[in-house]
Amino acid sequence: MSWTDERIETLRTLWEKGLTASQIAEKLGNVSRNAVIGKAHRLGLKARPSPVKADSDGTPRDTAKKAAAPPAAPKPKPEAAAQAATPAPRPAPETKAPAPAAPKPMQTRPTIPAAPAKPRAPGEKVTLLDLSDKICKWPIGHPGEPDFQFCGRPVNPSFPYCLAHCAEAYQAQLPRDRNRPSRAPMPPLPRVR
């Protein structure tokens, strides 16, 4: 879609009439609301007040609706508005509602014993499809190579790896005390002559 002189002039006239960007886009055809807003901005057309922002009295502004809306009905007198705003008294219930029952204690699901990890024969390849929660997921080799596999030994409880690979993957942090510096001091740099 290209903005011809005719389309630009139509945009200008519809914008001056106060039509919304959506309405202008609909009349022009084959153009989005955002394209209309962008072109109006680039042409330097008069900006419109945002319908989201409120006037000083707190009512939302919407110039397109105000221009198209019929004249407003006269406002009611303050006494009538106060009477209309007070809610009518509710009739008292004839019967008392039963008290809510005490909450039932939470029931826990029975734990199903996990099937033991099936022992792997030495040298048996463990592929991605063979992995489960009970098998060590430590990768062995490079994923692109044909001999790539996973460890496959039984896992250390609540870890994804066996005991040997947990020792490699996780290192215990020593507690920091006031006497131990946070890191070792750097040795002095050699002087360059």
Explained architecture:
This protein is mainly alpha-helical and 193 residues long. Among the domains are: 1-69; 121-173, no CATH class. Helices cover 27% and strands 2% of the residues. It contains six helices and two strands. The chain has a two-stranded antiparallel sheet. The chain is extended and about 80 Å long. The protein starts with a helix and ends in a 24-residue tail after the last helix. The relative contact order is 0.06.
Short structural summary:
With 193 residues, this protein is mainly alpha-helical.
What are the SSEs and their pairings?
Elements: H1 5-17, H2 21-28, H3 33-43, H4 63-68, H5 78-85, E1 139-140, E2 149-150, H6 163-169
Question: What tags apply to this protein structure?
Answer:
extended; mainly alpha; 193 residues; 6 helices; 27% helix; 2 strands; two-stranded antiparallel ribbon
How widely separated are the two ends? 69 Å
Average pLDDT for all residues:
74
Tell me the fraction of residues in β-strands, as a range: under 5%
- The tally of beta strands, per DSSP, is 2
Provide the spatial order of strands within the biggest beta sheet: 1-2
Question: Helix proportion of residues, in percent?
Answer: 25-40%
The topology string of helices and strands comes to: HHHHHEEH
Largest sheet report: 2 strands, antiparallel
Enumerate the spans where pLDDT stays under 50 for 5 or more consecutive residues.
Answer: 112-116
User: Rg to the nearest angstrom?
Assistant: 38 Å
Biased composition (Pro residues): 184-193
Pfam families: GcrA (PF07750)
Biased composition (Basic and acidic residues): 54-65
Protein name: GcrA cell cycle regulator
